[in-house]
Amino acid sequence: MPKLTGKSVLLTGGAGFIGSHLVDRIVVEKPSNLIVVDNLFLGKESNLRQARQLFPDLKFYPEDASNYEVMEQIIRREQVNVVFNLAVIPLPYSLEHPRSTVDMNLAITTVMAELLRQKTYQTLIHFSSSEVYGTGLHVPMDEYHPFTASTPYAASKLASDFTVLSYCKTFGVDAAVVRPFNNYGPRQNEGTYAGIIPIVIHRALRGDPITIYGDGEQTRDFIYVSDVADGAVRLYETERSRGLTINLATGREISINRLVRSILDVMEVDAPIIHETPRPSDVRRHCGNVGLAYNLIGFQSRVLAHEALLETINWYKAQIERLETVTQPQA
Predict the structure, then answer these.
(1) CB atoms within 10 A of CB 288
(2) Which domains does the chain have, with CATH numbers?
C-alpha cells in the first residue's frame, strides 16, 4: 500500500479552498517535501497558514500550472513523487469567458498528464467535478451515469478526466480521478465566484436579502471539505483506484431552499429571501452514489450537519471580525 510518508508531494491549486484542506491532511502523513503551485486566481496564500505552522518547510510557487516548462522545472527541482491536481478555472467564470476556461483547464491537465508520461514524477491524483454529469437522470448518480455537461466549465472538466484516463490506458501511467460533489466548509471563496454557502452567510451577517436563483427546488449533494481531503489521500493509498474515476459524496441531496433555511436557522437569523431568474444551464438535481469509494476505501461522509455548518459559519464570522479590526479607524 503506497503511503505519502517520506514522499515529495506537490499540489496544483493547493492554496485554494479544497486544495488547502488537502494540504492540511497531507501534512499529517509526514511527507519529506510539500510543494504548492497556485497562481492565486482563486486561492489565497493565507489559506496555508495552518499547514505552515505544522510544516514550516512548505514551499509555495505562485505559478501557472498550465505552463509545461515551469512545472517541469519545479517537479524536477523538488524531486516530486506525487501530484494532486486541483488547479482549475471555476464554473461561474466559464459563463463569462468560456473559451479561456476550456483552454486553461484542459491545458493544466494535459501538462500534468504529459509530465507523468515522461516519468518526471510517479503518481497523479486528478480532481474532477460532479458537474460533468449535468442534471441527474437517476439518483444517486454513480460513475456510469450519462455525461450531460451543460456549461463550458463542466465540459472542460469532462475532457480533462478523459485525458487522464486515456493516458492510463494508452501509456500505463499511474493515475486516478477523484470526482467530489459540492464541497463546503471554512476557506471557501467568499469573493468573486463565491459558492452559495459563503454568500448566504455573508448576506445574513449583513442583514441583506438572500437571493435564490429559480424556484430553489434544485438539489445538491453537499460534502464537508475535510472528508473529501481524507478520501483523496486514502484513494492514493489504494492501488486499486488507478485508472478509475471515483465519486466522493454523501449520497444525500438537499434543495437550495432547505439549505438556505438550515443556514439561517443555525445562525438564528431571519433574513428575507428573494427569487430571481434561474442561472444559465443550472443543474436541477445532484446526488452522488459512493458505492465504489466505499468498496475501495470504506468511504463514508457526514451529511450536511449542524456542527459542520456551525464550524463554517463561525470561521466566516471570525474572518469578518478580523477584517473589521484591521480596518477600524485608530483614535
Answers:
(1) 30
(2) 8-181+224-250+288-303 (3.40.50.720)
